[in-house]
Structure formats: structure tokens, C-alpha cells
Design a protein that fits this description.
Helices cover 36% and strands 14% of the residues. It has 3 helices and 3 strands; from the N terminus they run H-E-E-E-H-H. A 3-stranded mixed sheet has the order 1-3-2, covered by helices on one side. Strand 2 and strand 3 (47-50) form a beta hairpin. The longest helix has 13 residues, at 7-19.
Length: 74
Amino acid sequence: MLEVVTMREIDAIFAVTDALGIHREKLVIPLGPASPGRVRRVPSAKLEITVDAERAIDDWVKELPRLIAAAQAT
């Protein structure tokens, strides 16, 4: 179980968001993971990406484009 988000997880997220054309300044990545992980739009219009604490980051980021699209649609 992941206890703290490190540069490994952040780099994996950036690989996805960079490919989607999302500027890094539009992201908030809490250093505390949660279960389940999630993506939501916060009042500042940024996307908050909370890493899943129980899944391997390599598996979880495969879902990230879908989670981002859902958050942007709301």
C-alpha cells in the first residue's frame, strides 16, 4: 500500500497529462494517496489527481485518461 506520493508517481502522471496536452500548472497532485484514487475539478478549475493507494501506479495511470475526461465533463 502506497503511503506517500513520490516523484515516481508524479512522473507517471505527467507522462499521461503531457500526452493529453494538459499544462502542469493546471494540476494539483496531493502527496497523500487515497483509496480509491480519483480525479476531480477543484474550485480553482484545476484538476486534482489523487493517486490510488492500493493499486500499482503503472496499472492505475492506464485509467487516468478516462478519469480526466470524466472530470473535465463535469
